[in-house]
């Protein structure tokens, strides 16, 4: 009886062990099947990602490095081609400018100057495509802003002699900037332009809009205010629709009164002139070349005054806002014998 009981217990124990082992095997089989399904799903996802153009981090980095290398090579090739093209055309300054896009590059007395573009000064909002050059060499606005109004003008002095302003008007010119006078660069004497009064009267009679400019050689704010008052007195209360500009240029001669002025003093001179003009009820403006606004003046402190930029190239190189652009000094207009400077004025409708 005891023996039979032991045998029965052994059978039951072995049966339980067998059941446990079978359960474990089944669980392992199920787990392996789930793992395989998960692996298959993951591989399927990877296959799908690869088919859609997705890459591993290492692959993506390799592609990025390759793209950067190719872009740098392409940019370098384009830069070299542009540099060579400008040199072949004899445009050494333009060639140098092409490889320093973040600087304003100017040349003076055989020396090159590099001025970083100031992020605190309002930028020129126009793209090169916003202006086009016509068959006659005139520049016109071709941009998409319907509020922009660009008018055609000329600036004149005694150099143009007698002018038939009726023909000038008929030629499509809208306004004329007339030189009122100048200060001598050596002795500093104030001089009225010989043709100022004649040009002023005849231009207005022909129906042209009129503005005025003065060629300054002031060496301090007192002289600048004196120049402004000189222009105001010449106008004698006359109503004009375009600005009164101070023309600031540095003469290369060491004997010129302004040859050693600092940018701070140049800026104070410009401000003193413009303030005086503004107080008299006229609109002030500062005229000058690229160098005037990059090397001679602290343009950040003078942003409240519109700029009349003198730049005889295309497209415009000046990076900051401007209100008027003298784009040629060798234009030809009916009614004027010889060359005359051509301008556009940029306003709003």
Question: Biggest sheet, strands in spatial order?
Answer: 5-6-8-9-10-11-12-13
Mean pLDDT: 87
As a percent range, the share of strand residues is 15-25%
Rg, rounded, reads 38 Å
Q: What percent of residues adopt helix (DSSP H or I)?
A: 40-55%
Query: What is the assembly state of the chains in this entry?
Result: single chain
- What distance lies between the first and last C-alpha atoms, to the nearest angstrom? 121 Å
The low-pLDDT segments are 8-31
Structural class: alpha/beta
| Helical run tally | 8
Element pattern in H and E: HHHEEEEEHEEHEHEHEHEEE
User: Quick one: how many beta strands?
Assistant: 13
Shape: elongated
* Main pleated-sheet profile: 8 strands, mixed, barrel
Describe the structure.
The chain is of the alpha/beta class. It has helices at residues 2-51, 57-88, 92-98, 165-170, 196-205, 221-235, 263-279, 290-296; strands at 103-108, 111-116, 131-133, 139-141, 148-156, 175-183, 190-192, 209-215, 244-247, 284-289, 307-310, 324-331, 340-348. It contains 8 helices and 13 strands. Helix 6 runs parallel beside helix 7 (263-279). Residues 8-31 have low confidence and may be disordered.
Topology at a glance:
Elements: H1 2-51, H2 57-88, H3 92-98, E1 103-108, E2 111-116, E3 131-133, E4 139-141, E5 148-156, H4 165-170, E6 175-183, E7 190-192, H5 196-205, E8 209-215, H6 221-235, E9 244-247, H7 263-279, E10 284-289, H8 290-296, E11 307-310, E12 324-331, E13 340-348
Parallel strand pairs: 5-6, 6-8, 8-9, 9-10, 10-11, 11-12
Antiparallel strand pairs: 1-2, 3-4, 5-13, 6-7, 12-13
């Amino acid at each position: 009886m005891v023996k039979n009981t032991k045998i029965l217990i052994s059978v039951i124990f072995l049966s339980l062990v067998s059941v446990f082992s079978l359960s474990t095997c089944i669980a392992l089989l199920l787990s392996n099947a789930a793992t395989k399904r998960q692996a298959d799903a993951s591989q399927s996802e990877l296959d799908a990602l690869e088919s859609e153009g997705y890459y591993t981090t290492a692959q993506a980095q390799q592609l990025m490095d390759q793209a950067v290398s190719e872009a740098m090579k392409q940019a370098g090739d384009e830069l070299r081609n542009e540099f060579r093209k400008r040199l072949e055309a004899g445009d050494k300054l333009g060639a140098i400018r092409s490889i320093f896009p973040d600087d304003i590059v100017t040349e003076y007395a055989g020396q090159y100057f590099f001025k970083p573009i100031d992020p605190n000064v309002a930028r020129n909002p126009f793209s090169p495509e916003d202006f086009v050059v016509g068959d006659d060499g005139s520049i016109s606005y071709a941009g998409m802003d319907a509020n922009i109004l660009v008018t055609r003008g000329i600036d004149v002095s005694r150099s143009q002699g007698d002018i038939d302003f009726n023909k000038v008007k008929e030629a499509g010119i809208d306004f004329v900037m007339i030189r009122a006078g100048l200060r001598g660069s050596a002795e500093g004497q104030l001089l009225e332009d010989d043709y100022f009064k004649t040009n002023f009267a005849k231009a207005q009679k022909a129906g042209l809009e009129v503005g005025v400019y003065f060629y300054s050689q002031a060496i301090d704010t007192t002289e600048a205010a004196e120049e402004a008052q000189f222009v105001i007195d010449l106008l004698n209360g006359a109503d004009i629709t375009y600005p009164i500009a101070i023309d600031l240029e540095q003469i290369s001669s060491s004997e010129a009164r302004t040859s050693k002025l600092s940018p701070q003093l140049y800026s104070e001179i410009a401000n003193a002139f413009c303030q005086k003009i503004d107080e008299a009820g006229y609109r002030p403006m500062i005229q000058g070349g690229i160098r005037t606004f990059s090397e001679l003046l602290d343009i950040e402190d003078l942003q409240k005054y519109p700029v009349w930029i003198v730049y005889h190239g295309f497209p415009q190189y000046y990076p900051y806002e401007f209100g008027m652009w003298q784009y040629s000094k060798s234009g030809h207009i009916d009614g004027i014998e010889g060359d005359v400077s051509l301008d556009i004025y940029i306003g709003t409708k």
